[in-house]
Amino acid sequence: MIKSLEKVADTTIQFSAPVRTNSPELQQLFDHIALGASERDRDRILPFDVVELIRRSRLGALRIPVAEGGGGSTARELFEVVIKLGDADPNVAHIVRNHFSVTERILRSERTERNRRWLKEVVDGAIIGLASTELEVKRAGGGQVVNTKLTPDGDGYRLNGTKYYSTGSLYADLIFVRVLVPDGTTAFILIPTNRDGIELIDDWDGFGQRLTGTGTTNFTNVRVERSEVFFETDTDKDNLPYNIIPQLFLTAINAGIIRSVLRDATNLVHKRPRTFYHAVSEQAADDPILQQTVGQIAANAFAAEAIVLAAADGLDRLPAAKAQGEEAETAVALETSLKAAKAKLIVDDLALRSATLLFEVGGASTTKKSSNFDRHWRNARTLSSHNPNHFKARAIGDYEINGTPLPQRGFF
Questions:
Q1: Are 179 and 188 in contact, with CB atoms under 8 Å apart?
Q2: pLDDT band at 279 (very low <50, low <70, confident <90, very high)
Q3: Do 394 and 327 contact (CB within 8 A), yes or no?
Q4: N or C: which end of the chain has fewer CB within 10 A?
Q5: pTM score above 0.85
């Protein structure tokens, strides 16, 4: 049975404007989110209340410069936050993935009056969702838009079509939509989710990441103003590998899951009233085999976080590279995309192995549905399925052997 919480949870967290990466309020927010994460996942309770807390905290403005009212964080600091949020609740972290991806795209664009207005809405707490994927496209991640179209309507447009896998949009204030414009090219629009004619459907039925709102979005005769058209896509520029954040975001969530597994494994050892039949010690906490297993999970968590942050450092080099010209910027972006791809291969594997090791710590009793420890593997497996690893590994190998550049569209 699907439940939704209609009011913000009772909490004493008082947020500054906006919350900063090193603030005690941010850790309080993570702690609060973590408290109900397992129950929400087990009983499919949609986290509207948690998203409202994120909205109030203005966490979504982390990357917006301080001079424009944001948190002014670096890319590395953003991904430190993503790992912590993935530790608290990977569903919630996934919900805001597209928000940060779209915000980054606006930040990289010229500061027009329209873009400043959108950034101001984010500073004020607005959450952005995404509607881009269409099932008619023969290749996932492809640029062709099949049926979501803008047609002229007076001094604006009307939007009709259907999108799938609209992660986060169920909870969002604004939705970023890839559309076909009348001249046959593509563009993006950014419009409120509560506009007449928009239908957000919670029909995602995956076994993991079940609360992300990754459902269908229908647009029926939706009014779109000319000022809401983001830009017409320049094919060459669109192929530049700047879209690294969405993929690294998923990898960072998996790194957070390993931290959560470590916490559950440690708690399991401390709470065990008895140990295994063949154990060499009376107390579970003194058992060298359990110590070794938990130690391995801890090492996995450390490695995963270090790998994600090393890849994120490349994103912080992009502004300086851009100042040197397009060639320098592209070279840094390609190098960073390669690091992000390598990070995914390793962190995904560490997350799945760590989620399995948890059951070696607790034994058969940990498989009870009430414990919901299987959520770690289910969620990590679902996240890992975005851009399957064998395609990543092949592309990396082709680069290392033949110097073939990584695919630039749909690879991240």
A1: yes
A2: low
A3: no
A4: N
A5: yes
